[in-house]
Amino acid sequence: MFDINPGLIVWTIITFLVALAILRFVAWKPLLQALAAREEKIRTQLAQAETAQQEARRLLEEHKQQLARAEEQSQRIIREGRDMGERMKAEILDKANQASQRMVEQAKEEIRREKDAALQTLRGEVADLAIAAAGKLLDASLDTPKHRELVNAAIRQIPKG
Q1: What is the pTM of this model?
Q2: What are the residue ranges spanned by the domains of the chain?
């Protein structure tokens, strides 16, 4: 079935060794160089990935710090707003109290003036009534201006209440 030919085996081995030698000098070095270049490229990409990861961590930490500062600032602004609101509330209440106090004082002053005017009118009427009553009692006509002055002097001596 199979015939073994020694010459063919020798020539096959020689051809194989020659092809191997040619491949070693022609293809093996470029193949090893391509593998070395690929290995170096992978190392470089790994280093870049590590650098990018470190940069991402740094940026994440920086972002967290900025976020914390923003949160702190917003809390400070809220506190300041509340404080300002409380101060404004206190000012408004104080102004309202002052205004109501002024209104009460003005009302009291107006009441005093009205009372004085009413007392003055009442004194005049009392003087007129006293003169009229005295005139009827004496059944004589009295000098009205002179007697009015006497009655007014008597009324002034009455204590004011």
Answers
A1: 0.43
A2: 46-157
